Amino acid sequence: MKIQNDGKQFYIGEKEDPKALLAYEYIDDHTVRAYHTVTSKEMQGQGIAGKLYKEFMDLVKKEDLKVQADCSYVRKKMEENEEDKGYMV
């Protein structure tokens, strides 16, 4: 299972019809908005959303970005982790 990133989403499966994804967009050079996370029924319960979140946060930290967490899953994960919480706007 390979996680891919096309600059707008981290996903598993085909780009046009992913089995799981975490969608985001750049608001400006320093801020990214995470707005949707979903896993297909067949992928649920395997920690896939958490793996997508980890990839997303690796990108955030590498690029020293701030996150506008409009996605409830991303917001919850960030609030649960003190280090990640520091990246929230």
Automatic annotation (TrEMBL):
Gene3D superfamilies noted in UniProt: 3.40.630.30
Pfam families in alphabetical order: Acetyltransf_CG
N-acetyltransferase domain residues: 2-89
PROSITE patterns: GNAT_YJDJ
Protein name: N-acetyltransferase domain-containing protein
The organism of origin for this protein: Aedoeadaptatus nemausensis
